[in-house]
Specification:
Blueprint lengths: L7 H14 L2 E7 L5 E10 L4 E6 L3 H9 L1 E8 L2 E13 L5 H11 L10 E14 L9 E4 L2 E2 L2
């Protein structure tokens, strides 16, 4: 049975809550020749962007560095937030230590301590859509061109 659709304001609230409390997000990227790749990554949200880390030479690391764009999926299929964002690539030692410490405290993972070369990827959303059921599809766009609509 379908529940009544949430308002855009409620969906924004729910999405921001999920960004502040979830630890993992699905990250979709593609190579320059269009080969898709999908992985879950841990992340930390600072109110403006998601910070993630992955090996520099992994398919995701190479794709994000080359295209500087990503699509993220937060949640599950019956309560999803789809995020399209621009990617900033930072060498692992280029991030201020307090931000790396915050990421580690939030995710339980510290890529700075590994021998494999990792990079930070700061993903700034420019479009966010969120919906649960078909009755929420009409107003699913919550952010456009980096600005919240509600």
């Amino acid at each position: 049975m379908s529940t009544p659709p949430r308002s855009r304001a409620q969906r924004r609230h729910d999405t921001e809550h999920r960004l502040g409390h979830d630890v993992d997000v699905w990250v979709a990227s593609a190579s320059a020749d269009g080969v898709p790749h999908l992985v879950p990554l841990s992340f930390a949200w600072d109110g403006e962007a998601l910070l993630a880390a992955t090996p520099a030479e992994s398919p995701t690391g190479r794709n994000l560095a080359a295209t500087r764009t990503a699509r993220l999926a937060l949640g599950h299929t019956r309560d999803v937030a789809m995020i399209e964002g621009d990617v900033e690539v930072l060498d692992i030692d280029a991030l201020p230590p307090h931000l790396g410490d915050r990421f580690t405290a939030r995710t339980g993972f510290d890529p700075r301590s590994l021998t494999t070369r990792y990079r930070w990827f700061r993903i700034t959303p420019h479009r966010i859509r969120a919906w649960r059921e078909e009755n929420e599809l009409a107003d699913r766009e919550l952010m456009r061109e980096g600005r919240w609509l509600a």
